[in-house]
Amino acid sequence: MPSGGVSTAELADLLAALPFGHRLWVRGMGRCLYPLLRSGDAVRLLRCGPERLARGDVALVRHGPRLAAQVVLSTEPWVTESLLGGTDVAGGELVGRIIALKRGRWVVRLPRPTRPALFLMQRTLSGVWTKPASRAVFRHLRDLFSGWTKPLRRHFVGPLEIRLVRPEDLDALLAFATERLVVSGTFLRRQLRDRWGLPPDRRVGAAAGAFDAQGHLLGFAWADDYHQEGLALDGFWVRSLVVSPRVRRMGVATALVRCLVEEMERQGADRLHADIDEDNTASLRTFSGLGFRPAPDALTTATNQQWDAAGGSKRLVVLVRPLPG
Ligand SMILES: CC(C)(COP(=O)(O)OP(=O)(O)OC[C@H]1O[C@@H](n2cnc3c(N)ncnc32)[C@H](O)[C@@H]1OP(=O)(O)O)[C@@H](O)C(=O)NCCC(=O)NCCS
């Protein structure tokens, strides 16, 4: 993924303008090849046309402003899917073939002989993953595993500092956003400059981060009003609460939200809201544990109506926490 606020659409234009035969590394292509590739890892792109691809290749495909790395299932008709199958939009414009993957220091090449194996892997994984029961078993195992590995993860990550995000944290914030947030880097940069990063007496809204000893961000959340995004919802709302998987179940989300509660109280807000997908048990428990309680029905209805109109699909539970001041 590009740094310095280049959007995915700009990156897609840039890649599409490259001559055929050109090769380059591109980072942060989303979760389409998960679990083989995680968001924030890099892929090596060979810019080429569809005649160079066959079933089982990995294609970099452009869907409007989005870029996605997908497995080619058929070339006539042209069908690609993410590794776990499912929800991706059909069609798309081919940018090129992915010839290698890179995670940290590890590079895995994808030469042509890997095509049948990758095709079979996609068929098997997507067959299993599209069944809700398989996903439930996976989540259960992951939670179990997460408990066992907690002491080890705590040891390797070291102590975390939970505090308000400051203007000098911008690079760490953009790196985290590239990997984990759906909010654009441009939006975050502007909010930090014009609202969250101002001196205490002029600050409006706030962002909280969990920083490791190297200054990397491993968890993030912000509180601000919705009017800026065109939603007719009053008050301050907690948004984009995300914790890196390696530090989950260690109280990071709890500490981030607590930090925002304290700051919004200091700013004189009389309450703080959160809107959460109704099936997000982890998040619902986190907020309940911090004294957030169900909002009045009228607010819940209004919030769901606003999000439905903005294209949201899941029902949201709205919680509110009074700030005594
Ligand atoms: C939801 C999320 C932020 C929680 O982060 P976290 O740092 O692991 O949360 P905490 O350690 O502070 O957990 C607080 C409580 O929430 C509950 N909880 C957290 N993760 C849970 C899980 N996977 N399953 C069930 N309960 C969970 C527990 O009650 C936990 O307390 P406990 O560990 O003492 O039992 C994290 O799982 C995440 O980033 N998820 C993906 C993004 C997301 O869904 N964000 C929320 C958008 S509203």
Automatic annotation (TrEMBL):
One protein family per Pfam: Acetyltransf_1
InterPro entries: Acyl_CoA_acyltransferase, GNAT_dom
Record-annotated N-acetyltransferase domain positions: 160-324
UniProt name for this protein: N-acetyltransferase domain-containing protein
Organism in which the protein naturally occurs: Corallococcus caeni
The organism's taxonomic lineage, starting at the top: Bacteria, Pseudomonadati, Myxococcota, Myxococcia, Myxococcales
